[in-house]
Amino acid sequence: MAQTLAVPSTSCAESYASGMKRSPFVFAFLVACQNQNASPTPTPTSNPPPTPSMTAPVASSVASAAPSITPPIASASSAAPVAVTTTTTPSFPVLVGHVQGNHYIVDSSAPTCTHDADCALVARVTAQDGFHVNKEYPYKLAMNAAPGVTFLAPGAISSRTTGDFKEDGELAGKMTVRFRAAAGAHPLSGTFKISVCNASSCLMEQSTIAATITAK
Q1: What is the pLDDT of residue 159?
Q2: Under a CB-based contact definition with an 8 Å cutoff, are residues 183 and 215 in contact?
Q3: Under a CB-based contact definition with an 8 Å cutoff, are residues 176 and 120 in contact?
Q4: Contact, 104 vs 160, CB < 8 A?
Q5: Sign of the torsion angle spanned by Cα atoms 99, 107, 124, 138
Q6: pLDDT at 110
Q7: d(CA 67, CA 88)
Q8: Is residue 132 a contact partner of residue 177, using CB atoms and an 8 Å limit?
Q9: Please, what is the Cα angle at 77 between 75 and 80, to 5 degrees?
Q10: Nearest to 173 by CA among 112, 119, 120, 105
């Protein structure tokens, strides 16, 4: 089969004409010559894809996009109600002391006194749990010294003997402590000797009482 070859240049054509007459090896040389003279195929070039911008969004644009929220202003009608405390002045006598004893209680009270005038503190003993006051016992209430206060009982000891203790039925009795006081508040205290009895025995006890009196 006859082959047709493109002759790229004069020098290769001349060699081709003479080569065909000589040998197949010369023919191979001519093919190489043709490839040498052919125009090289251009290598395609490509530009790298653009790099995406990673710049963070501007804070001001983000802030402007957020909605503005304004807290509601509480009206005066929605305010919590103000608690009002009412103080009630107790009536005479004013309870100023309480003692829980062994089968009895003692409550001490006194009014507001006038300064340098006779006044009194009352200590009331009440028997409990089936007991009653001992009608034979010499109840005594020895008061401790208090600045600005003068006790009227001898030795500041109020007792049954001085007429300051009186029974009030089977279950109770009261001791009256008479005194005078300068103007102002005065804390008073003393030792109350007490006896209560039941059907089988009598108990002899003592309790410390404390109260604050006011003289105007």
Answers
A1: 97
A2: yes
A3: yes
A4: no
A5: positive
A6: 84
A7: 56
A8: no
A9: 100
A10: 105
Taking phi first (over 0 means left), then psi (-120 to 50 degrees means alpha), and beta for anything else, what does residue 148 get? left
Cis peptide preceding 93, ω within 30 of 0:
yes
* Residues in the chain, total: 216
DSSP states of 100-147 as a string? E-SSEEEEEEE-PBPTTS-EEEEEEEEE-TT-EE-TTS--EEEEPP-T
**b/e per residue 149-161 (b: at least 16 CB within 10 A):** bebebeebbbbbe
Q: Count CB-CB contacts under 10 A for residue 72.
A: 6
Q: Indicate yes or no: pTM above 0.90.
A: no
Rounded CA separation 85/20 (Å): 133
- Tens-digit pLDDT string for the chain (216 aa): 444 444 444 444 444 444 444 444 444 444 444 444 444 444 444 455 555 444 444 444 434 444 455 555 544 444 454 444 333 333 334 445 788 989 999 999 888 899 999 999 999 999 999 999 999 999 999 999 999 999 999 999 999 999 999 999 999 999 999 999 999 999 999 999 999 999 999 999 999 998 889 999
Nearest alpha carbon to residue 153 among 182, 120, 188: 120
- Residue 62: both structure tokens together: 């983000």
Contact present, 195 and 134 (Cβ < 8 Å): yes
> Residue 113's closest CA among 209, 190, 178?
178
